[in-house]
Specification:
It is a single chain. By secondary structure, the protein is mainly alpha-helical. The chain folds into two domains: about 1-60, no CATH class; about 65-95, no CATH class. Helix content is about 50%, strand content about 0%. The protein contains five helices and no strands. The protein is elongated, with a radius of gyration of 18 Å.
């Protein structure tokens, strides 16, 4: 189940990154138009999974700092890095204007 959830998460990222079907890696491969239809997924599930995971490997998710790392930068007087070790979720980091980590 975890594998399926990961594939679907990457599929969602791919769709958002490609503005839906515009320039989608799943569109019109070898004369087959996938267009995310149920029939396309059922008939080509292994191939579509390979395409999605290949795209995900080429487009890794940005990694954001942990809450402690961010607090340490914001309030330099105390060491928060070892206390709050949970990474900041991407959607929250973007709303707060927090940039992804380098590398």
């Amino acid at each position: 189940m975890a594998e399926f959830q990961n594939v679907m998460k990457q599929f969602d990222r791919m769709c958002k990154a490609n503005a839906g079907c515009v320039n989608c890696p799943l569109d019109d491969r070898d004369g087959e138009i996938y267009r995310c239809s149920i029939g396309a997924f059922v008939n080509n599930s292994e191939r579509i999974e390979r395409e999605i995971m290949s795209w995900a490997a080429e487009n890794p998710e940005p990694v954001y700092p942990t809450w402690g790392e961010w607090l340490q930068r914001m309030y330099n007087s105390m060491n928060y890095a070892g206390i709050f070790i949970t990474p900041i979720p991407a959607d929250i980091a973007q709303k707060l204007g927090i940039e992804p980590k380098e590398g």
